[in-house]
Amino acid sequence: AIANHLKRPNSTFLVAEYKSQIIGFAQAYDHGPLVELARLYVLPHYQRKGVGSALLRKAAEFVPAGKKLSLNVHRDNDKARNFYEKHGFRNKKGLYHSQDNGRLIHLLEYDIGPKE
Predict the structure, then answer these.
(1) Residue 51: which of 63, 41, 64 has the closest Cα?
(2) In whole angstroms, what is the distance from residue 17 CA to residue 20 CA?
(3) 77, burial (CB in 10 Å: exposed 0-12, middle 13-18, buried 19+)
(4) What is the side-by-side order of every strand in the sheet holding 11-18?
(5) pTM score, whole prediction
(6) pLDDT at residue 5, as a whole number
(7) What do you get for the CA distance between the two ends of the chain, in Å?
(8) Residue 67 DSSP code
(9) What phi and psi, each to the nearest 5 degrees, are found at residue 10?
(10) Which alpha helices (H) appear in the chain, and where do they start and end?
(11) Those residues with Cβ within 8 angstroms of residue 75's Cβ, 6 or more apart along the chain or in another chain
(12) What is the pLDDT of residues 16-71, one digit of tens each?
């Protein structure tokens, strides 16, 4: 399944390793005016240790200047929503229904701004 995601055009896939073990990953797709952070996952034992923050910062480096980095968070996932809001993401649409499964989700965006 990961191989298929790696073949997608305009895709970025990052991994975090510790002692030769993959402990987290992030995946983003460039969709024209915005870049979607489709996945960010860290093994539970390594959560709250800066791994997710490091992956998020690195993913943001691949976003061209002036674009927005966006992501979806399920309504009931307060832990994830708080994490992203702590890193500067803001809710842009309120709640809306996911096209995939009809669950209520938040659309969060982060404006990358100009690169130095």
Answers:
(1) 41
(2) 6
(3) middle
(4) 11-18, 21-30, 34-42, 68-74, 104-111, 90-97
(5) 0.83
(6) 66
(7) 36
(8) -
(9) 60, 35
(10) 2-7, 51-61, 78-86
(11) 95, 103, 104, 105, 106
(12) 999 999 999 999 998 888 899 999 999 999 999 999 999 999 999 988 888 889 98
Tokens (6 digits) for 36 = 């979607």
pLDDT of 4 strictly over 90:
no
In terms of Cα–Cα distance, which of 53, 100, 107, 43 is closest to 75?
A: 107
In this prediction, residue 33 carries a pLDDT of 82
**Average pLDDT value for the chain:** 85
In 3D, which of 53, 33, 32, 41 has the Cα closest to residue 13? Answer: 41
Q: Is the dihedral of CA 116, 8, 92, 82 positive or negative?
A: negative
